[in-house]
Write a structure and sequence with these properties.
The structure holds two protein chains of two kinds.
Chain A: H1 3-18, H2 22-42, E1 52-57, E2 61-67, H3 78-85, H4 95-98, H5 100-109, E3 112-117, E4 123-130, E5 145-149, E6 164-173, H6 178-191, E7 197-208, H7 210-225, E8 229-233, H8 237-245, E9 253-255
Parallel strand pairs in A: 6-7, 7-8, 8-9
Antiparallel strand pairs in A: 1-2, 2-4, 3-4, 5-6
Helix pairs in contact in A: 1-2, 2-5, 5-8, 6-7
Chain B: E1 6-12, E2 16-25, H1 30-41, E3 48-52, E4 56-59, H2 61-76, E5 80-84, H3 88-96, E6 104-106, H4 109-116
The chains are: A alpha/beta, B alpha/beta.
Chain lengths: 256, 118
C-alpha cells in the first residue's frame, strides 16, 4: 500500500469514527489526500524526509494538519502561500509548486484553513471542520446579473457565426445568491439562437462556489448543443485556478 | 484492504476503448494512465472511450483533471468520453466539480457502449 493510500484510509477511519456523514468523509479524505500529497511532492524529499500528519478532535470539530521539512521544490513561505490563497499575491509560477488550487478546494470544503511555518522546517498546513453528520449542502455563491447584447468582443471568435450575447456578473457568487445569478442565465440560454456565443464577463467577480462551476459545465453543454459557444471573459487568477483544478479550464473557452 | 491500483485499456469491436480503472487511482498512477491512454487518442477508427469505474474506489484532483482533458481532447476530434459504473464516492467527486454535467454517466459499460450505436 502506498503512503498516500494509507493516509487516505486512516483519515477516512478517523472522520467516520468522529461522526462525519459518508459524504463528508469522502470530501475530507480528498482534502487530506491533496494536502498530504502536496507536502510529499513539493515540501519534502523522497526517501529521506518525514512528513508529519496530525488529527485531533473534540465533540464539535476535527482538526487536521500536515507538516513537511521544506526540502522539496516548493519555494514559498507560509505567509506567501497564505497571501496567495487569500488573493493578495499574483505569481504565475507558483501553480506547479504550491498546490494553491488544492488549498483553494480545501478552503471551500473546510471551515478554516491555516498555513504557517512548521517547526520541522517546511510548512504546516491545517484545516478544521465542524462535525457534519448530514450530507453537504449545495455549493456556495453571487449577486446581480445584468444582461445586455454586446458586439464588443465578437472579433475574438472567428469560428462563431452567430451573434454574441454578454452577461456581466458581479461580486461573490455563493449559495445565498446562486439562484438570482443562474436563473436569468438559464433563461438566456433557453432563448439563445443557434450558433450564438454567450459571453460571461467575470470582470467584477471575486468568488464562485462549486455549484456555480456545475452550472458553467451544464451551460457549456447546452450551448454546444445549439452549435454555439460559451466564452468566459476577464477571469481572475483565483477563479481560473478553481476552473483549472476541476479540469474545466480545458473545456471552457476562457479569455483573460 | 484496498484493491491494488490497476489501469487497462480494452478495445471493443475495433471501435471503442474501455479504460478499466481499478482501486485507488491518484497522482502516483497518472503517468501510467497517460502512457496508456494518450496514444489511443490518435487512433482514427475509434469512436470514443468509456471509463469503467465499477472497480474504482478513489480518484484525486489530478485524475479528475486528466479525465476532463480526455473529454476535451476526444470532443475536439468528434469522439466521445463516457463514464460507466461510478460508485457513490466517485460520483460525488465528479459531481462536486461539475464533470457530471458535461460527461454522460451510465450504470454499466454495456449501456455506455450501446449508447454509441444510438
Amino acid at each position: 500500500m502506498s503512503f498516500s493510500s494509507l493516509v487516505r484510509h486512516i483519515s477516512e477511519e478517523v472522520f467516520n469514527f468522529i461522526g462525519f456523514g459518508k459524504e463528508w468523509c469522502n470530501r475530507l479524505k480528498l482534502v487530506v489526500d491533496e494536502l498530504f500529497m502536496n507536502a510529499v511532492r513539493y515540501g519534502s524529499t523522497a526517501d529521506t524526509s518525514t512528513v508529519h500528519v496530525f488529527f485531533s478532535y473534540n465533540d464539535e470539530e476535527v482538526e487536521f494538519s500536515v507538516e513537511d521539512d521544506g526540502s522539496g521544490t516548493r519555494k514559498m513561505s507560509a505567509d506567501e502561500l497564505k497571501a496567495l490563497i487569500n488573493k493578495n499575491v499574483e505569481n504565475n509560477n507558483v501553480t506547479q509548486t504550491s498546490g494553491r488550487g488544492l488549498a483553494l478546494i480545501a478552503k471551500l470544503w473546510t471551515d478554516h484553513l491555516d498555513i504557517k511555518q512548521s517547526s520541522f522546517g517546511g510548512l504546516a498546513i491545517s484545516f478544521s471542520k465542524h462535525i457534519e453528520t448530514a450530507p453537504p449542502p449545495p455549493p456556495p455563491l453571487v449577486q446581480t446579473v445584468i444582461y445586455k447584447p454586446s458586439k464588443s468582443i465578437s472579433e475574438a471568435t472567428k469560428e462563431s457565426k452567430g451573434p454574441d450575447f454578454t452577461v456581466k456578473l458581479h461580486g461573490e457568487i455563493d449559495q445565498a445568491n446562486i439562484d438570482a445569478v443562474t436563473l436569468p442565465i438559464d433563461e438566456q440560454i433557453t432563448a439563445l439562437p443557434e450558433s450564438a456565443r454567450l459571453i460571461l464577463d467575470f470582470g467584477d467577480v471575486d468568488y464562485i462556489n462549486s455549484t456555480f462551476i456545475g452550472h458553467l459545465a451544464s451551460w457549456h453543454n447546452d450551448v454546444q448543443k445549439k452549435g454555439g459557444q460559451i466564452v468566459l471573459k476577464n477571469v481572475n487568477d483565483q477563479i481560473r485556478d478553481v476552473l483549472d483544478l476541476v479540469g474545466l479550464e480545458h473545456v471552457l473557452t476562457i479569455n483573460k | 484492504m484496498p484493491i491494488v491500483a490497476q489501469i487497462k485499456a480494452e478495445l471493443i469491436e475495433n471501435t471503442y476503448y474501455v479504460i478499466h480503472m481499478t482501486g485507488e487511482i491518484d497522482v502516483n498512477q497518472l503517468p501510467v494512465l497517460e502512457s496508456i491512454t494518450k496514444p489511443l487518442l490518435e487512433e482514427n477508427n475509434v469512436k470514443g472511450f468509456v471509463i469503467n469505474c465499477s472497480e474504482l474506489t478513489f480518484i484525486d484532483s489530478k485524475i479528475v483533471g486528466y479525465i476532463a482533458y480526455l473529454y476535451t481532447t476526444l470532443t475536439h476530434s468528434n469522439k466521445k468520453l463516457l463514464i460507466a459504473g461510478a460508485n457513490d464516492t466517485i460520483n460525488d467527486i465528479l459531481t462536486l466539480v461539475g464533470l457530471n454535467a458535461i460527461i454522460t454517466f451510465f450504470p454499466t459499460v454495456d449501456e455506455a457502449i450501446q449508447s454509441f450505436n444510438i
